[in-house]
Amino acid sequence: MSTRLGDLVERLGGRLIGNADQTVVGIAPLSDADSSHITFLSNPKLRTQAAQTKAACLILSEKDHEAIADFAGARIVTANPYAYFAHVAQFFATLHTPARSPGAHATAVISPSARVAASAVVGAHVFIDDGAVVEDDCTIEAGCVLGRNVRVGKGTLFHPRVTFLDGCSIGQRGIIHSGAVIGADGFGFANESGKWVKIPQTGAVRIGDDVEIGANTTIDRGALADTIIEEGVKLDNQIQIGHNCHIGAHTAMAGCVGVAGSAIIGKYCTFGGAAMILGHLTIADKVHISSGSLVSRSISEPGQYTGIYPLAKNADWEKSAVIVRNLSSMREKIRDLEKTIQSLGE
Amino acid sequence: MSTRLGDLVERLGGRLIGNADQTVVGIAPLSDADSSHITFLSNPKLRTQAAQTKAACLILSEKDHEAIADFAGARIVTANPYAYFAHVAQFFATLHTPARSPGAHATAVISPSARVAASAVVGAHVFIDDGAVVEDDCTIEAGCVLGRNVRVGKGTLFHPRVTFLDGCSIGQRGIIHSGAVIGADGFGFANESGKWVKIPQTGAVRIGDDVEIGANTTIDRGALADTIIEEGVKLDNQIQIGHNCHIGAHTAMAGCVGVAGSAIIGKYCTFGGAAMILGHLTIADKVHISSGSLVSRSISEPGQYTGIYPLAKNADWEKSAVIVRNLSSMREKIRDLEKTIQSLGE
Amino acid sequence: MSTRLGDLVERLGGRLIGNADQTVVGIAPLSDADSSHITFLSNPKLRTQAAQTKAACLILSEKDHEAIADFAGARIVTANPYAYFAHVAQFFATLHTPARSPGAHATAVISPSARVAASAVVGAHVFIDDGAVVEDDCTIEAGCVLGRNVRVGKGTLFHPRVTFLDGCSIGQRGIIHSGAVIGADGFGFANESGKWVKIPQTGAVRIGDDVEIGANTTIDRGALADTIIEEGVKLDNQIQIGHNCHIGAHTAMAGCVGVAGSAIIGKYCTFGGAAMILGHLTIADKVHISSGSLVSRSISEPGQYTGIYPLAKNADWEKSAVIVRNLSSMREKIRDLEKTIQSLGE
Predict the structure, then answer these.
(1) For the whole model, what pTM was predicted?
(2) Residues 245-304 of C with CB under 8 A from A
């Protein structure tokens, strides 16, 4: 399944310099590519390597194009070579993935009151409950469970063993990975003489278009209002989103992040792995939290924020940790010194 | 499905001031409630807002009742309005949730040696293994797997895709959310010349009454003895409980908490999100651990404990982190200063 | 099902001192063992207790054997009593676990193009996709999903509800616990004007022999190349391994550890619970990371490394945290003092 460079450019844009009839069968890194591949240069430091690649075609920026004289193959010049690479890779991935036939597997159980589009694929042992809506071109892989009255937008893909519970909705072109649980109860209890009384969680989870949710990630339903995930949000694996959170469009979170209930997070934010956000906070747009940092207060200003204890050899850490524990006595000593010196000076 | 205030008070207690025949159809926050709702005031700061609510009835404390003169609707006076709200919300949630019919779905696989109460609901694609016992009024939703000889107490609810493995037990009125795994092997190995030899995990997990376990939470079976979760414990999502832990009654843990093996945790404790507890520790009753803190030693005294690196703008963090790494040299400098000053003074 | 001591030693090695025809039915700790049990001593501090155990046989080291004169039962002397105990416990666990009959449950769905060994056990509601290979003596428990063209090596055990996705492979004698997801997409996106463009993840996950993977752990497939888990690696529950990681043989990770993409981790390493490793790092062999520590740079030297904020009563932590936030002003003060003293001295 080879593809003409001309066809690629027609589909994805960019300026082709070279033979439009040249074909490629896939994408490969600069060093591994051969004459059947297209490759890309996104880091100017690799220009020398790029000039020597054996690829049939090189995706690169205008600047890199001007700087590289001696590459003999074709070129696609574009403003964002890395994004162009992603689009090309998507194109080839679609070519190479065998399509499932539309329709439901014989072992799937679909409520008579559910509406599943004829173009949708429903895998083995799937359960779709009353009133659920699955739109055109969706794929619901083996072992998924869809609760009552859920709505799954056009072209959305659930990998095997996703749980998508009562009343939740997701927009178009979404991807949910295996083991994710959308719409479990939020963690809400009233304390009565030391015992916990459950507060029913009657909101849902509403997810926009173009959202991707990682394996074993959990997003809780709201207590009264809904938990909201806006369009274009990307969540990695093992993430926990508490009830009534609101995550702004195009924000991305790496693996193991936790967001406590009712946090309001802006658009275009990024969260490094295992960052933790306390509840009822507001985080502005374009805030970037470093991996492993705990956010304990609202952040109103864009920028990069960090709070991690520096790693050291254990023996060195033990020394610094003892001092951290006693920092107030160190401050006392400095104050004493200041006083002594003042009196000496006088 | 409206309910008389008189019936609510008969069921849940509290002192009704107003028309017992007034009906309400649900609960809503102070600001959203209309004349078909009951609402509640648990924070005295919101008294002004409470006086203006359009709700038909206000749940409030004796003190707030005395302080609010001008609210025209009915009142339910109670010692703990927030817990009362929770009970009312439970009542309405039960009214509004469509009940499943008792019995097992045709696709469920139930071992002939299992005993499943006739009043229990067993969903699609459930597997119940040999010798399992599922008591009256249980609901086992789609895709759950129950191992050999498990016991599920009266009225307990498993959401879809719970795994509850061989020999484990849970008491009455429990709730386990989707993706939770109860009774996987604990992490036990002997090291033999650098390689790990598995130590079989032959204990089980024993869970008391009124326990709730969050989505994708894991509780490991014991190595020889059992892992114990006492009554009333509430675990949020994505929590890991190691083998042979013992968690005291009514302790609550927020999302992403990890408890290493053989930790003994008291009653009435709370753990903030992503708190981590090392193994073989003992934590007293009524200990409260802040989010993101690592507990590396036993705690014998009740109280709030914290250990998190303060968040800062990345540039500021880099400055403080460098100094933390070199705190012992800072201490040296202070000692030198003290000596110099002493000699100057002499 | 009792076993002769002579048979145990023949199977597992060690030097038996005592009656080879003495039988035992199981293993128990020193304090709980009775005359039907075998027990073990791995900690010399427990010699007195060991001498008094009622067990029929004591596994112990040469040194402890020489030090304990008065134990009346049989002895098995071995270089590593703890590992010997693990082997004995495995032996008894195998005796006591009822075997499943080979073959596939009637509700399992197996693609005609998959090759499942006749000796394999395939549980209820399992789905095995096109081209998958399941070798001899494997057990695939209820609710597992095996993707296209996966390979599961001889004698490997999947507990219920494992997801093992397209193209992934695992060697012999592996164990994967419930809820684990192997081969979900890595977290790879190119940014295009603030929006994220998915980079297809076309690598797989390759897992060696004798690997154990905990409940709800996730291992992502590689972007282009594969994610590699070498032989003998042991991963606890709730662990996240990013795309293109390479984990060296016999490395063990405790629960809740996160490893970001493209990290290269050596052999014989250990990671405490909730340790986090950033991406694109290289960790040498025999590195040990303490629980809760974040590894933000490569480590080339073996040893123990730590980076955790020391836990304190909340009031004490608040004091130290304020100072940590202002450490650079403390350093300023010390510099000022040094200058003042210098000028005083002159």
Answers:
(1) 0.96
(2) 256, 258, 260, 274, 276, 278, 290, 293-297, 303-304
